Amino acid sequence: MLITSQHDGVTLFQMGRSIGPLVPYRVHAFLVDDLLVDTGTIAARREFLDALRGRTVRTVVNTHHHEDHAGNNAALASLCAPVILAHPKALPWIADPSRMPLRAYQLAVWKRHDGSSAQSVGSTVETENHSFKVVFTPGHSFDHISLYEPDRKWLFTGDLFCGRKIKYFRRDEDYGILLESIEKLALLDIETIFCGLLGVVRDGKKMLAGKAAFMAKLRDDARELSAAGLSPRAIARRLMGREGAMYYLTGGHYAKVNAVRSVLAGGPVDPWPI
Questions:
Q1: Which of 104, 168, 242, 263 is most buried (most C-beta within 10 Å)?
Q2: Superfamily for the 2-212 domain
Q3: Over the range 206-242, which residues count as b (16 or more CB within 10 Å of their CB) and which as e?
C-alpha cells in the first residue's frame, strides 16, 4: 500500500503492508527537492519505486536504522544510486540488517530488508532550496537523528515524535534520553513536524512541549508510585490504563509497562547493542 500526497512543497509517501483489507501499520518517507528522508518499508517496495520514477533523488537521509525507515535503501541504490547518509552509529546496522533481530510481528508487518552502503551525515544537509540542520536525537534508538529547516520551521522527526502522549513504548527505547531529545527540540522554532508515523503535525513547537511535559510528569509519577511500593505493571496500569492489543500482538515489545521499567531502570529494558 502506498499513498502519495503534498504539503507545503514536501511530497509524502505513506506506505505499509496490506494484509487482506488491513494495513496494520503505516510509515512515511518524505521528498524535498532531491532529498529523500527515510526510505520506508520493503513491504511497499514496488509501489514506492513506481512512485519515485521520474523524480530526482540524489540524497537519502535515514533518521535511524530500523527496518521501516531504511527498508528500501538497497532498492533505491539500484534505481538511482543516491548518496545515503545516516548517523555514524547507524552505518553497521544499515550495511548488515541481520545484526538486528526481528520479532514475528516485525517480519509480518515490515519484512526483512537488504543491506546498503551509507556514509556518515555531517552537521548540515543541503538541497537546491533548503539547508537542514542535523540534530542528534537518540532515545527511540541509539542512532536517531532529526532534520531541522529553520527558514521554513520544519522538523523531520523519524520516530522521535509519534504523538503528544505515550500509548506504548518499545523495550529498546530509553525513556530518559528520549525525553532529553524532545526537550532539546522543543527549544527550536517549529511550525510543522514531518513525523514518520503521523505524517504532517501542525503546531510543532506546542506539540513537542506538550509531549515533554507529559513525559516529565509520567516519569515523576512513576518514581513516586515505585517509592510507595507499587510494581511496574501496577504503575503502568494506574498511569496509562491496561495493556491493549499492541502488547499482545508484539509479544510485549510494545507495552505501557516498558515506559515505566525504563524510567525506573534509567535505561532501556533491552540494553542498546553498542
A1: 263
A2: Ribonuclease Z/Hydroxyacylglutathione hydrolase-like (3.60.15.10)
A3: ebbbebbebbeebbeebeebbeeebebeebbbebbee
